[in-house]
Design a protein that fits this description.
Elements (H helix, E strand, L loop, with lengths): L3 H9 L5 H19 L2 E4 L1 H16 L11 E5 L26 H8 L3 E6 L33 H8 L5 E6 L5 H7 L2 E4 L19 E6 L2 H15 L18 E5 L9 H17 L2 E5 L7 H18 L8 H6 L6 H18 L8 E5 L8 H5 L3 H12 L4 H6 L3 E8 L5 E8 L4 H14 L10
Parallel strand pairs: 2-3, 2-4, 7-8, 7-9
Antiparallel strand pairs: 1-3, 4-6, 5-6, 5-10, 9-11, 10-11
Helix pairs in contact: 2-3, 5-6, 7-15, 8-15, 9-11
Length: about 450
């Protein structure tokens, strides 16, 4: 399976045809998706039609950049003109947008080939990935296991090579959680770098799209190309990715983040820290506090769903409706008070960067559990499991608006992936990715792929 960087270079030098690469991805999807359930909608004919244009352009010497001719999958929250966008819900089963999301338009402008819409936890409201009107996505490393959520299909598709890269969205960990459990790279960019216009929201203040890829370089290439398309002030020169990490100061946030780790997960993370000690200038424990701020999340979730809850509650999955109903009743004063508290926490937390450049933690304290185990849980039990384990280590960085990446750091004895989370101050995505890249190059975990 080619990485994005490899495929882009081969397309640029005319060694690889975008049409043939797209056909290969579609063939793998036809073969493997019935078992993995990663895609909700495969746009095979449209993808091949899109692939012909970059092929013609590259042959004429007009290579647009690293996304030109690259097959990419989209989490089925991103509006696509003429292609249904379901949010994995019967509420939107037949919804066909008339306009592309800004993010989708940027991908097209960069020359990407869009191969389909990827499964997710219904309306992105969950960390397991097992609640979907189209059934749960399956983990390519063990199809009896969860992918994590909510960008479940995105992680499964990239890990299994159904597309070269995918776009997920992350509100409390929905990119990083499935990336960790499926053994790929998942990056939540700094807040505001990428547009959410045309993306079905969960909690609009915290939602952000982001790359899900095989390698850190791929994530940087994808993010850099899209930031360039936005014309924003975010830096888009990613040459620093290859700079040495030798001057970086690394903080290890142990309190809370290392609680209740499965022993094999703990062993992988400690081994990763040992490697990083050989790469960085300093590695030291730090204390990081960040709350949940449920009033903000709940108010924004309910505001979006209120009309559907009132008119067509029966179209939600049984696990989703009670969660949404519990979000009701947040007062304006509670919402404002929670924002004030959060702003204070952000200011305090960012003081860590006076002494440190990045903060590392385990991404998820457990390896992927069996789908059947979580399906046997009640609604409240599943939510508690997701909160305690699947999203506990990722959500603090979401509310802080810090860029955060999960990178593979080992496997359990059962062959299940483990992720290391690297986070930094707002706007320091290049620094976060630089350490992730240095660690990745010092190890071999990213070279392992699941069997078919």
């Amino acid at each position: 399976m080619l990485t994005l960087a490899e495929a882009a270079e081969q397309i640029r030098t005319r060694q690889l045809s975008p049409v043939e690469l797209t056909r290969e991805c579609l063939a793998r999807t036809k073969r493997l998706n019935p078992a993995l359930n990663a895609f909700i909608t495969v746009t095979a004919e449209l993808a091949l039609e899109q692939a012909r244009q970059p092929e013609t352009e590259v042959m004429a010497g007009h290579w647009r950049g690293p996304l030109h001719g690259i097959p990419i999958g989209l989490k089925d929250l991103l509006d696509t003109a003429g292609v249904r966008t379901t949010a994995a819900s019967n509420q939107f089963r037949d919804r066909v947008p008339t306009q592309d999301a800004v993010f989708v338009r940027q991908l097209k402008q960069a020359g990407a080939v869009l191969v389909g819409k990827l499964n997710l936890h219904e309306f992105a409201f969950g960390g397991s990935g097992i609640v979907s009107a189209f059934g749960p996505a399956k983990n390519p490393w063990d199809r009896q296991r969860i992918t994590g959520g909510s960008s479940s299909g995105s992680a499964a598709a990239v890990a299994a090579g159904l597309c070269i890269a995918a776009i997920g969205t992350d509100t409390a960990g929905s990119i990083r959680c499935p990336a960790a459990l499926c053994g790929i790279v998942g990056h939540r960019p700094s807040a505001g770098w990428l547009s959410c216009k045309g993306v079905v929201p969960l909690s609009a203040s915290f939602d952000t799209p982001g790359p899900m890829t095989r390698t850190v370089r791929d994530a940087a290439l994808l993010l850099g190309a899209l930031v360039a398309e936005t014309g924003s002030s975010a830096p888009n020169d990613w040459a620093a990715l290859d700079d040495s990490a030798a001057k970086l100061r690394v903080g290890v946030a142990r309190k809370n983040f290392f609680d209740d780790l499965e022993p094999q997960v703990a062993a992988c993370v400690e081994e990763a820290i040992a490697v990083i000690k050989t790469l960085a200038a300093q590695v030291a424990d730090v204390k990081l506090e960040a709350g949940g701020h449920r009033s903000i999340f709940n108010a924004e979730i309910y505001e979006y769903h209120e009309a559907m809850v009132t008119k067509t509650p029966e179209l939600y999955q049984p696990h989703t409706l009670p969660r949404i109903l519990k979000c009701a009743g947040i007062s304006a004063s509670d919402y404002i008070r929670d924002w004030r508290s959060l702003n204070g926490e952000r200011n305090k937390a960012e003081q860590l960067f006076q002494a440190m450049d990045v903060i590392i933690t385990p991404t998820i304290p457990v390896a992927a559990p069996r789908i059947s185990e979580l399906q046997s849980l009640g609604i409240n039990e599943l939510r508690q499991f997701e909160t305690k384990y699947l999203l506990r280590n990722t959500s603090p960085f979401s509310v802080l608006y810090w860029p955060s990446v999960s990178v593979p750091c080992g496997f359990t004895r059962e062959g299940l992936p483990v992720g290391l989370q690297i986070s930094g101050k707002p706007g320091a995505d290049a620094t976060v990715l630089r350490l992730a890249h240095a660690y990745e190059q010092a190890t071999q975990w990213h070279t392992r792929v699941p069997g078919e």
